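Sample entry follows:

:::
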Amino acid sequence: MDKGLYGMSDEADNANEESQKQLDATLKSVNTEVPENETGKCLWCEKPIDDKRRWCSPICRNEHEYYANKL
């Protein structure tokens, strides 16, 4: 029996569904928690900050992430 165009799309749909299930399972296992900064200082420039933010400014955050991703 010839599957024609409909049979091929069913196979593609099934493959896409399986890929999505595997992606969902992988994403569930990724830890996305960001620890609070308990040091009282910016993690990049070490400027004192009054709360639990990790950086004192977007500039420090961007520089920290840029250099961290180079490693």
In short: The chain is about 55% helix and 0% strand. The chain has two domains: 1-29, 38-71. The CA atoms of residues 9 and 15 lie 10 Å apart.
